[in-house]
Amino acid sequence: MKKYFKSTKLLVAGFIVFILLLAAILLRSHTPLNITVRTGTTSEATSIVYTQAEKTDSFAYQSTNLKAATGSKEIYFSYLFYDLQQLKADKITITSPERISDAKVEVGYLLNNQFQKQASIQLSEQKQNGKYIYTINATQIKKMIQLAQEQTLVALIQISFLVLIFLIFLFAVSQLSTIHKISFSILLFLFYFAAMLTWTTGRVQAKSYSFIALFILALIMLGVLFGNRKVLKKPIILGIYLLSLFLSVMKLLLIRQNFNYVFDQNATIGYIDSLAQNHTWLIPDYANMVAPNLSFQLFLKNTFTIGPTERLDSTINYLGHPPLYYQIMRLLGARVSGENTHFNYILMLSVTMAFFILALAIFMYIAYTRLKPNLTLHLLVVAGLVGNTFLFSDSCRLNNDSLAFLLVAIFALGAFRFFEQRYNTLTYLLIFGTISLAFLTKMTALVMIVVIALALLVYDIWKNKHPIFKEKNFWLSALALFPAVFYAVAIFIKYHALSINIPSHFPNLYRYSPNFGTQEIYKISEPFHTLAMMISHIIAPLTSTNVSLSAGTLPQFGSLSSYLPNVAFLLVFGGSFLTLCLACLPTILKKFRLAPLFAFVLLSLLVTLVMLIAQIYPYAFETFRIGGYQPRYFIAYLPFAVLSLAFFVENVQEKIQENALINPLYQPLTTTIIKNVLILISMSVLVEQMVLVFVS
Prior knowledge:
The protein is α+β, with helices and mostly antiparallel strands. The chain is 57% helix and 11% strand. Helix 22 (567-582) packs across helix 26.
């Protein structure tokens, strides 16, 4: 065995963990895909679900047919797991103008628009006013739920992914060289991805990247034509950063003045209005909070007023966010006069934009104080921080993401200081304070910060043997967590949870919210396709410039052609996330001083993504809506990724100058090429994103 594997003990331990995880997958209750009933009747049939609202008020809703082809004698009724279980359905009635054969229906699920039968259910039959009425009782509904939970597709996907991870683990502990291990693992993952995509969608689209490769070669050849550049002094680099901040403010104002990007504004205004009208300080009244019906034209004004009229034609407010950002906005820009709330919208928006600009300034400060005074590196940072329009677009409206982004930036400064072993009260306060405020602002920011902080703590104790728990300033700084702990206790007492989830805590209200979705638009049913769509939707705006800033949502992304005209942009942001991944490699960890910190950032990104998937996929079959995975949740990772690229390039340049990577004969030429290619790429991104996209 030792001939093939480095450690028999590690191999046995890995095998035991694999068996335990496999058992957990097989034994756990899986989220059902959907619950669909097929009846042998016409499209005129209707279905009504009767349930209980808070175990007191009975109510019912009509479920329209999901599929009924013209001339077909079959019809499908798709019932939500959410409806039948969370709302405690009592019975379901199906009304048909003609008799259903043998008074039976078939129960199963829809996968890729194909009905998969699981069982048949005998119904009670009545005839009233010339129509046939069939009833599915509570016992039969329970059986339907049990059948839905026995669907095995989710388990098969999980098992196949677990096998993939185990095979990669076998490569990792084998006697193969590091290069072969990495190559095999990448090929194995690509094969798995292709196989899963083929299995769940029936086709694989292969796309050529030759244009990108040729463009990169052209840039390198152009770089040879440029000579060496002298290193600029820090005052000049500081001027570059200040100028980029000024351009950033202009960019925000330009987007605000010329493009109607008002997603979630009704809900945000409704949240602030609820706090103002009810004088709520700690826990908002989520159950009675509404999203008023406001025209987007209203958000082009500096001030406006909403009152009973706007609240009358409203829906439940789907924002279950913590209240800190909304309380700040209430104090700054909401004034109550009876049942009316007057909003100073431009003031609230200006403060929101200021949060974003201040966050950018902090990330620039980190680069300015820690990178060498090398123009090419700082140009790269500027291109990464101010060249992404999607990064800016989210702060051109009222949004708690801007405050969360600022908290992440402050935490980043603390994380760098801690990694540099600057163990003092300021460092600890930066970390504990942002954890506390993030808990009161946004959960995705909290997860990001906490994962990185915990990883840094474990690494510091293990690597540096730092006795951190014996330091008084550590424990005194930990008192900054008190606001978060106080809020957590209060909200747990009221809702028995640490965060509010509107579908779970207020299912009756959410059933009729605009975010619930409809059966007619329900298309995706297999988890791998869902996952691929989510990841594509998240990555696209972070690495592509094909952004539509017209009225409505942004951005819109299509095929690979979206990337081809903007290769420089793709190199900066694709390269940034690539360096986050490279930071996890053992060789890089040894030679790149900041690699552990950026590896923890990648770990945090993966944890956040997994948590979102764990929440999103089950809700997709409870609400007929696959949402809650907005790309803007990952905006805060962009500056970290850009910094990782800049520090990585700096490290490579140092190794080249030390003649540790290449032959000394080629060292000057290589250095010149790298510098000039970086200048070309950075300037291309800045000119295209800061000027041309807006002029056009």
